[in-house]
Amino acid sequence: MNYRHLLAGxxxxxxxxxxxxxxxxxxxxxxxxxFNDIQLSPTGEYLAMTLPLEDATAVAILRTDSMALVGSFxxxxxxxxxxxxxxxxxxxxxxxxxxxxxxxxxxxxxELYAIDxxxxxGDLLVGYRARPDEPGFVTGRVVEPVAAFLxxxxxxDERNVLISLWPFANDTSARLERMDVITGRRxxxxxxxxxxxxxxxxxxxxxxxxxxxxxxxxxxxxxxxxRDHWKLVNDEGSSHRIERPIGFSADNTLAYLIVEQAKGxxxxxxxxxxxxxxxxxxxxxxxxPTHVIHQPxxxxxxxxQFVGATPRTAFFDEQSATARIQRMLEKAFPGQSVSLLSxxxxxxxxxxxxxxxxxxxxxxxxxxxxxxxxxxTARHRWFDRDGGASVRPVTLAARDGLPLHGYLTLPxxxxxxxxxxxxxxxxxxxxxxxxxxxxxxxQLLAAAGYAVLQVNFRGSGNYGRAHTQAAAQxxxxxxxxxxxxxxRWAIREGIADAQRICIYGASYGxxxxxxxxxxxxxxYKCAAGYVGVYDLPLMFKRGDIQDRTSGLNYLxxxxxxxxxxxxxxxxxLAASIKVPVLLAAGREDQRAPVQHTERMEAALKQAGVPxxxxxxxxEGHGLYGEAxxxxxxxxxxxxxxxxxxxxxxxxxSAAPAGKRxxx
Length: 663
Description:
Elements: H1 3-11, H2 27-30, E1 38-40, E2 46-52, E3 57-63, E4 69-73, E5 79-86, E6 91-98, E7 107-116, E8 123-126, E9 146-152, E10 160-167, E11 173-180, E12 186-195, E13 198-201, E14 207-213, E15 219-226, E16 229-235, H3 236-239, E17 243-248, E18 255-259, E19 267-271, E20 278-283, E21 289-294, E22 301-307, E23 311-315, H4 321-332, E24 337-343, E25 349-355, E26 362-367, E27 372-378, E28 390-397, E29 403-410, E30 419-423, H5 440-447, E31 451-455, H6 465-469, H7 478-492, E32 496-506, H8 508-519, E33 526-530, H9 549-558, E34 581-586, H10 594-606, E35 611-616, H11 626-644
Parallel strand pairs: 30-31, 30-32, 32-33, 33-34, 34-35
Antiparallel strand pairs: 1-2, 2-3, 3-4, 5-6, 6-7, 7-8, 9-10, 10-11, 11-12, 13-14, 14-15, 15-16, 17-18, 18-19, 19-20, 21-22, 22-23, 24-25, 25-26, 26-27, 28-29, 29-31
């Protein structure tokens, strides 16, 4: 049975249409992935897949052997299945989140929805929309204004899990509770000694760590020696580092932590809670540990993946059976990143993802007995894995000597010399980083004939605490200098044609694009901003960051005193921009409210700067609707083409009746 046909019928996924070969056919770039992530059930009988829809993320449950759809869950508009965990052989726990736009980071609502593999007994167990009692279930469920998150699925316990709860109050303390995944009944386990805490348990389900921060955003880590005593292990205020627990050894004698360093990237250490002894286990010379590798079928950490110039894995014991499996798979898929995602309880089958800059993700089921990897499905099977743009790592030095790392995407068949180039600073910006993996927008720009340059400017994650902290109160200043230095590096290297460079970004990247045009009037030929922030003092008044005291402190720590931010706000510097500008925004954007774009457009018009602006109703921080995406990317390619000479978008083929609508 073809599961894709079933999902298409259930969720009305968009079709792929043909386009003229002379221009860039947008269809394959706009088409949503068939799924985001997959989780294998403990027995291996089922797969749970998250499905990106136009304005939500659903869950489909399939039989592994036939890929037949047996159950599903679809949340309301702008709600998303953010986390999906098998909490028994046949029951899933789904953590919900809200996103008011395709580029928005999911903001967990704290709601936990449970459903059986066959699609029955679906129930919102905890969250602000939960009801006290559901027909057919045991009464007595507590309903209160809290946000809940899975802390431990309690392997071997088919009825209960541990969840952390944050009351709906400003930067409040958390607690850990045991919850029945059928009835939703809860029982207190412990209260946290620190606000906004996340909890870590050992392999016996005993609560051991609480890590959090008060409104001052200073991180603290506590260890629970017994049920009545918490011990402070690390205080960022005095140690000037964050320590993050990632689990315990199989015998629970050692805890594993990822620890920031004063200089250089983070390291993985073991810590003996009884003796206090610490040992560094894994570290990279350039990048932080990015992903934790667990012993398949368990929550025991056994290694990490580092994502740098090329992804690499490292294990505590390189001779372990799992390490040997990893090396075998890496040899079978050279040049690609291999990730062990989940496994059956008996470790007989492992779900494996293989991906690269040209490969959005192929999934295999690996049999540990036969050592065979059977192809399961692909995230974007319509993309040509061999025909996409190539991506290579780059390294340079900023003007003050800070090492910078990034990635260069080159059009297929290009020799990488004298190309029109689009500089794309990432969003975020703090702690976010470009990693060289598959990115639809970069592939689209390369298909139009452009080189794409990304640089992990100061403030980006993955390169250690010092690299991130160097961005404090440097918006529009040193952070922007890093983007400029990377652009000039590409010119010196002969990669970019100095007369054909534009700068384009989304969210913070849009801010950086406008500041690039402000500060370097002769460097860029055009600038484009998508769902951007352009008026920094406005960030303290409008949006979703300043709602809490911790959010206001975050803005002050990273941006500075709002009274002094007008000098680095593009909305006040429009007269310095001498090149054409494209702006786009969603009218329901809660992260970068539309007023930023409206004010930027007005300021550019007043300064006599050529500006084109597009506003999209019922869209947030990034566009969901296929018609709106098509309109926007057609505008973007046409805009870039006028300055750089690249390809434009092909006209759309006939769309299904009623599918398209004006933005």
